Protein 1
Amino acid sequence: MSLDTSKVASTNGTTAATASKPSKIGGVATWADDRLGLAGAMRKNLRKVFPDHWSFMLGEIALWSFVVLLLTGVFLTLWFNPSMGEIHYEGSYDQLRGITMSEAMASTLNISFDVRGGLLMRQMHHWAAMLFIASMMVHLLRVAFTGAYRKPRELNWVIGCLLLLLGTLEGFTGYSLPDDLLSGTGVRAADGFLKATPVVGSYMSFFLFGGEFPGDSIIPRLYIVHVLLIPGLLLGLIAAHMLLLVYHKHTQWPGPGRTNDNVVGFPMLPVYAAKAGGFFFIVFGVTAIMGGLLTINPVWKFGPYDPTKVTAGSQPDWYMGWPDGLLRIMPGWESVIFGYTISWNVMIPILIVPPLMLVILMLLPFIEGWITGDKRDHHLLQRPRNAPTRTAVMVSLMTFYGLAWAAGGNDLIAIKLDLSINQITYFMRVMIFLGPLIAFIVTRRWCISLQRHDNEKLLHGYETGVIMRSPDGGYSERHLPISDTAAYTLTARDRDEIYTVDGDTDSNGVTAPGSRVQALRAKLSAKMYEHNVQKPTAAEIEEAHHHAEHEHALEAGLDHPADGHQFDGHSDHTVEEAPLRGGH
Amino acid sequence: MSDSHHNTPAVVEEPIPNPGLPAHHWRPTDVDERAEKRAERQVAAFFGLSMVCAVLFVVAYFTLEIGDNFDTFAGLGASTVALGLSLGGALLLIGLGIIQWARKLMGDHEIIEMRHPAASSDEDRAATLEALSIGTEESGIGRRPLVRNTLLGAVAMTGLPAVVLLRDLGPTNAEIANAEEGLGLQHTIWKQGMRLVRDVVGTPIRASELEIGDLVNAAPEALFPTEENGYPEIEGIPLQVQKAKGAIIVVKMEPQDITPGEGRENWSVNGILCYSKICTHVGCPISLYERTTHHVLCPCHQSTFDLADSAKVVFGPAHRPLPQLPLAVDEEGYLIAQSDFTEPIGASYWEREKQ
């Protein structure tokens, strides 16, 4: 096919198009630059390159759902009344009319039933919140599993972890605002958590609630935290997260032409801006459809909060489920020391383990960097299999999270599967320790076996599915070499370098300071890379190919490679071209 | 550092040389004018349909009533469904149009940009450090420890007003406990002679009305003040506070099934027992009663208490039994409390055993 390249849009060039004559845009730009001097920064950034991969979109979902949250949240504030003053509800919802409830609950019902589009906005707000937190979590997993948190991006990882924490708190403060029976039960449990804090517990509870539970202050205070304090912090941290992303430039997958020193992809203007901007509308649109079709948090069914009532199956929103699960499976330990009560049964699952998990998460890149002793900048992503220990640690943490989360639904599991809740709880008490360990071992071995498989493909080619029979009756499967691009992509990774200690002692035989720490580091480094499979050397590949050619010549009985399509008309290549074909 | 020296991987020859960026492939829309026009029409159609959806949104907003008809469609109001679908359509179609435009019509040449180390150049670092040291030197902060330390002290001390300012967020437990009867974590509104009443209607409970196996959710009579019973008016937040602490469950079982706690032998009336309804774990109201085992389960975290045995914990994360309310019967045959609870109800706290 001949190419009519004259038809190609001029923006296809690899450099920015220069304006040939003064235009309106040029005039505006000049006016602005005379005053703001932005051209210097814009020159670099308008055509800044962003690499493309579907997994880079996950963080974008979080970003855009945050924007949806801001927009729908502002709408809700126009009607919501964060007050615990009691009134008789007189709105459209029959079943609750005439009932005494707080103004917060009554205005939530008002938004749901008497403001057109109000229920839509409430449901969009709640769905966007779920999307926000879920996409942050999946984005976090992507970053961790691909090693994108390595130098120089450790601080951006820490910012991301803080965003997840703040997003979770923002969710809790948000769903507590309507003052309905379900969220009120959650607030009362939170009061119990505060009271379990050693020394200052009852003071914290009384200060937060403005006196004894429930007091008249909690809803207005949660409100200002929800609409001002946390969103302000979120905005600031998101801005920092994005600025660091632009400064570091995005990581990319290795491949032909894609190295640690460059970034290959589409320019910000127009392609990336259009794709990202278009994606905002898609996230917004999907949230609108979800808000219109899927009921979420129907507070009118729960009724107003009453401290003497509770519903079976009381559960927080899903992202608060894992600490709740730990709380459920914790044995009822409490001790009284010198007359003071220490509630281990609440402190461990709520006040100790979740903050500890967050700290572990934030420290992951620093721990890894210290063990490997690797001080280089990393811009190429790793496949999870090529960092077996890291992948195993992450899967282990995920297993812990998943088991704790499932334990948070132990009553639902018991009902739906007709099991004993006691047995589920005892099972979980064991599995919460055993599960992560098993997950670690299985994942690590799995990764290593996948690494072996990669080397197999590099050295002996891919499996064609073509069975050959040799003249003496033996059968064997035909292997063909993979394409150069595929082979390069598979080998575009570092060889693991175990950290070694030298110079333990100086010339006088005095042990160098900190050498025991260094020895530990070397040991951990050796453990971390133990059994990992390294990519083959050039000589090994050369030898394997040589060997393979020899073998084929002996057993194939065919003087050309085969993939099964040469003779059935589905082939897009001739038999002679076959070895050059790529794509495997 | 020696780290950077010997932990840089030795240069080993790469097994496969980098083949370089693959050649660019033209898209049909780049080379075929008809395909290009078709893509252009597709994009415009997305945008056009989006406009239609926006109009539909406005129409739905003004034509569909809400209020009484909030669940006509799929359990949701026709208005909510129509507004959601039209708004979603309007936004989604803009997004799809833009992305189709970017994929089919915008340039698709991949560009290579070189990376730069995140670190500044050595020159910049040196200059910055020098500027920093000149600035520090000129300020004299290093040479004048008296000035430096008093400044640090002064700034640190301004933290005190910030903390102290928050003191009036609420009273402390000790302050309100002494202010009025029934206030504070150690007390509830229960007192000697107060009748037990049904929690919704407020009618007193006659001991003879209860059958074996019954569980009644009850409340203190003081929460339903009438001229007849003479309790003072209580409403709003004070009412909520007392409801939150005073809620009880009353159960009747075969007297021989009961294992009375030490000193609690006369706390029951004919097999009728009364316990706080507030879970001792984190304070949920408990509610699920199994009459054959006399177990009651908290729906929040599944702590299970044996009501026949002083409400001791038989399962789950709670540690302490539910506090028991000593019962008696007045001259008219109604159940009354012998006293307030003898221990704080609800979740544990640090100084619980101290008061």
Protein 2
Amino acid sequence: MHLREDVFSAKGGSASGGEGPTMAATRDGFGKGVVEAGRADARVVVLSADLAESTRADGFQKEFPKRFIEVGVAEQNMATVSAGMAIYGKIPFITSYATFSPGRNWEQIRTTIAINNVSVKICGMHAGLLTGPDGATHQALEDIALMRAMPNMIVISPCDAEEGRRATLAAAKSDKPVYLRFARDKTPVMTTPETPFEIGKAQVFWKSKNPKVAVCATGPLVHNALLAARELEEKGIGTIVVNVHTIKPLDKETIVSVAREAGSVVTVEEHQITGGLGGAVAELLARECPTPIEFVGVHDKFGQSGEPKELVEAYGLGVSHIVAAIKRASEKVPMR
Amino acid sequence: MRITDSEVKALKLKANDIRQTIIRMLAAAGSGHTAGPLGMADIFAALYGHILKHNPKNPDWPERDRLFLSNGHIAPVRYAAMAHAGYFPVEECLTLRKFGSRLQGHPERERLPGLESTSGPLGSGISQAAGYAYAARMDGKDFRVYVATSDGEHDEGNSWEGAMFAAAKKLGNLTQIVDRNFIQIDGNTEDVMPLEPFGDKYRAFGWHVIDIDGNDIRQFVSACEEAKTVTDKPTLIHAITVPGKGIKSIEHDYLWHGKPPSKEEAVVFLQELSLAREELLKTK
């Protein structure tokens, strides 16, 4: 799958000064990607709600000042202004924190972007617990559910900065509304420019011989899923790890196929289980291939202040939690 | 574009046609809003009959002026005005709110050509029109962007966010027409959530404001012409209208904001409008 060689590096990663895997925030991938998208297509514009540096929209602002539109602290206005621009024929990327956009402006997105069915890209930064010290108000854990329930909307949750860049470029080329979910903290970079990326096509990142559990993960926690897979393979429990970067449309073919092959499933996400990837996979498998499932995610709780790593552990999203979930899943009797 | 007496008379007759169609379509639908559409019939007759550059046979004509409707619940007046302008047969108006109709209860862009946008949830039209006007100016387009709004929807914060944005970006190619009819669903606007001084609020926000009688076609046409001369600010045509205009027994009554006439009421209302039409025909 063309992953980086230093994915499992505990120390000595080539590009990170010898301290483990190469680290970068998915929002940085967005920042690069949107500038590239702007160079490739003059219709691309970026709107900012007073968070240009934090959302990494500032790179675009520097290179294309006339195509950068500041709307102030007004996410509802940002969504509706962008809808007007997209009806005209522009390709707007609207940028803020995910709790505000698509949180606060959900209805504006529903009516003026999704029902209108226009090419606006909603870029939600600071998604998940990786937001860290800002606390619960700024840690979006419901955004996937909000956007997944919306007709016409594509939902993408990149696993690392490089995939964030690729997802941004792919979104610019799509004529549909797209929600892109990004995180604040630096996380391991797993993919390379050669890693295949296609909207709606999940990727198998890891496959043991005789897998007993298929792990469907999304976002930066895909790395934790890989670490868990490696640890368990050494202990004789084989897994398949799938990077589900597109949550809508879900790659039904790949997910049903790995569930059938392994016989049980674990989902991993930095989001409420209700309505997130776990919900999406459970809905699919209940219909197509009933399979025992364990859910690693946030269980109906809000976040709180803390360091990202601390929060990931406190909320049960660490490698040890995924390992335990895989073990539980592997012991379940397949339903067939 | 000066307007002659005979043109004004023709638009008044068109407004009467539109009002009659509104009554017929609402009675057939059995639900919908009556007061707002009747109050805005003169303005919509003038927009489609005199103001807008448009082509009913080619709704996507790139050089057309754009008309956004923010308060989507007054869709009957837009549908009726479009039908009487030749966009589709007037009889199609009777499909309003019916399953499979292009005339949805609240207008949807993808269902009917010529709508520009989807609306109904209030407060989002100014921003959409402003975004459109901003994009058009980026590309040097010289058509105008119009947005029709209601007074009640100015309870929504999004309306004022859009008003700030349009002024901040100096959108001289944008004209807003507000239907200031002083009613909303739960009562009179000044009782539900006071909006006065409405025009002065917009002046303070940096808009060019023109106060008119919104049921006077000549004043409306003149305001639209004045708006074209203001290039560094968006313009608000602050149109004081009579909700339910044309049906004396319901004028100004907020209870008619969100209900349709019964079949029996419709017969009486149509008689009143037919008489008014006869009177109009007698004038010079």
